[in-house]
Amino acid sequence: QVQLQESGPGLVKPSQTLSLTCTVSGGSITTNSYYWSWIRQPPGKGLEWMGAIANGDRTYYSPSQRGRTSISRDTSKNQFTLQLSSVTPEERAVYYCASGLGHWGQGPQVPVYS
Predict the structure, then answer these.
(1) Gap between the Cα atoms of 84 and 20, Å rounded
(2) What confidence tens digit (pLDDT) does each residue in 9-27 have?
């Protein structure tokens, strides 16, 4: 069974770069799904798709982050990573990684404190 687990910092300060890693187990990042995505949910709001990486390392990003998002992957570690630069306090959210086949991580709460 494919499982995803996010890992990252306990908190991020405004203007810093948020980095999160998603480790995939029970399957391969190169074969078990074509897309691997990052999604976030601010408190009291809906889910927001941030971007995805596909086989061949093609990346797709939501325009709402205005070019501040970067997604990459390390196939040797079966991981993919999100970097979001210049974060603001409004970007405090639960950040999820997900496969294109519907597998989701549990999502760490990432606070952005001033």
Answers:
(1) 9
(2) 778 899 999 999 999 999 9
